[in-house]
Amino acid sequence: MKLVPSIDTDNPGNKDSTYKQTRQKILSEYESGKRDPSTIQSYLYLTSLEQNNAWYNQAAKEWCEKNETECLQAKSKVTFSGTVTDDTQKPIVGARVFVSGEEKNSALTDKNWAYTFSFTTLNPRRIRIVVHHPDFAGGAHTVVTFDPSLLDAGEQLFEKNFTLTRAVQSIIVDTSKKKVMRGSWVTVEKNWFLITNDFSKYLVPFDAIKTPDKKPYTWQVAIRVFEFDRKTANEFLNNDVFDEVYGFASEGLITFSMPLIFFYDTKGQRLEVFKDNPMTVWTTNRELKALIDEMSMRPDMPGFNPAEYDEGSSPENIAKKIKEDELLAYQESQKDPLEHPLTHSWLLEHFSRLPGFFVFDQSTGSWDNTGFALVAPSTDVKHSIRAHFWTKK
Asked: How many helices (H) and strands (E) in the chain?
């Protein structure tokens, strides 16, 4: 992955980013008991931005109980609608589209592969809608609602058409019998399933697969494995991006290869692997040339100006620099073979040209930055990038 972060260029470590400072100020004022409309609105927006539904709902309830008139004025009807098709433009019937954190606000696509649903909400608010279907990779879309007093109409309309991608591997395993029921390139090891394809492999502990409320699930599990490149990952690349240091970092994300995996029970309901007991994934940067092109100056690029040409930014020199960055990252990774030290902060502090690694939280529809390690001195070597992987934080 490549992240385009909002950082202070005079402070590469960015330990006290603008976002982090603003966040702390809002939380401190709210926790001290300050409850003026501005503080309440800032707190509600922050919690919706970070998808902390428990904090948001508690604060909204408290505010509306004490400020019934103001609460009513800040509410409006919100309607989402659109269609869901696959990457060949064939309709997908029965896909579920819902609001992240508020699954009751949802709809299934009908025989015309269309969905629509409405609900009432406080404003302003950042809302993510997520789409799921057992046979396809899900997608997510984020909108920001507005203050109803600024609108002529009382209803806010949002339209989103989703295009979903079919799995490259469909597998059924039994976690109670520790047995593969269907599927190739999957084996049973001592305490886990090992799923492999040409670009990625997953080590899934037997006890890691759980229900959404974190209860152990021991029965048959349907597993769908996906692989994306820069062209096929379109539904995922415009979603919110978070980093442990920088907080809300960006909405600009470019992938140079992206693994993804879903789990379902026998009824087609989602199962999760949580961050506190994660899988391990090994993946491959199969688009190294695209990464080099992205960072270099090329005569065939639009807007190329010979007068501004910098030999140091030629494809040949960028390729050489990336090789140096890979070697340094590999050496760092070898200090402790069990750790994942190549965090976003490490990459920035070493001015590395390597893309960061992000896990897509399929329930909230947002990206989480996480550390990774190199198990080979080049990222385009098969299964050379190792990281922890989960489906829900």
From this structure: 7, 26
